[in-house]
Amino acid sequence: MKKNQRLAIAALCCVVLTLVRVFFIAVFFITSVICIVIAESRVERCDGHVTLSQMAVDSLNTTSTFVETVVSSFLIFLIYRWKQFKFINFLRALPRQGDFWMWTTLWVARIFTNVLIDIIPGINQNYPVLIVLGFSLSFEFASTTILACAFTHVNIHTVKSWFAQHFSRERADKLLYLYRAILFTYGLRMLALFLYDSFLVARNITRQSEYRELDSVLLALDVGYRGSLAVFFFRKFFDFAVPQVFEETNSKSNSQVKSERTEEEKEITLELGQTL
Fold this sequence. Notes:
Helix content: over 70%
Distance between the termini: 87 Å
Shape: elongated
Radius of gyration: 26 Å
Structural class: mainly alpha
Strand content: under 5%
């Protein structure tokens, strides 16, 4: 298979997976938020009379987490195979990256959340879907964190120039749109999860667990974790070239100051010559 064909297949897979992700993000956000807003219970639970049953919601969330894990793993593989991305340099620079330590710490806290909120209740209730959801959420956020750390070393100008070198202008523009769409959908999912957790905090709704006091702390950490990832992906999405307005203004003002100084020096020199 030729290189262009492999790239075309990879781009097509990214398009399809991005559309699937948008579908699951919309379904999750609409059903979950409506359930929280309308339900009178102070426990995170869908009774079925609002939107979907709790089992249907858990099944959708589990499927979406598997989709997110597959997409993130696929993108990590593509970045790893990209010659412009030096994987050894990435590993060497990773311990010196502040976001890496913050996200890793919050991911460990997320594992505790999955164990207390999903896995233990799923075992006690003999509810396999909840157990699978707990494990799949851990894998999703692990892959998302690794992908975010990789994107910190990917510059939009490098991506744009690489597209321009290897593709025609029309294809390069489409691939750049796809690249930005991937960043936007990641930011959109993190924003949806952030708003969902924020709704739980705002309405004083607790998640089903025997450790509710500890869960309130873990829920606050989840809000920070998902919010920071949302900010990161949206910041990467809006990484456009900004006109150097201030630099041009400063350079013009500096040139004017220099010209004024030279004129003053000339006048002083002429006055001194006349006096002498």
